# Entry
Amino acid sequence: MLLGLVAFVPMGCGSGESELTRAQFIREADAICKRAGNEQVKLAAQRKGEVVAGNFEAVTAVFVPPMEKQLRKLRALRPPRADERQVRAILQAIESGVKDAKLDYLDLFLKQTNPFVKASALARTYGLEACAESPYAVIKPRG
# Structure
């Protein structure tokens, strides 16, 4: 009897990684994106005046760590099974934007070269608000 109980407990406990409903996913994902944006603002305030075109180190220090953290946290969420393809496309677009920004950070300064246009459009279509906003609120794109 004890053996049966031991075998049953791990299966019944779960790991807390249950699939979220669409509304839950949107709420949690937007909270993650909002925190990343707030972290960028905080980091930019600490480097006041340094986050400008021509200062690769400052821009990437303010921009990249919060975006990478955001991406890890978003990937940890379990979207509804029916939405997995849409969410995967959003995450891939964010990842692509981060890679682009790391390679050519000046793209962050121009609306025409915004590396997050696709990610923002996909997020907005899915119903995400904070995640659809520019992920680099501290940088004011021109053009």
Notes: Residues 1-16 have pLDDT under 50 and may be disordered. The helical segments are 2-13, 22-46, 56-76, 84-103, 117-126. The chain has five helices and no strands. The two ends are 72 Å apart (CA to CA).
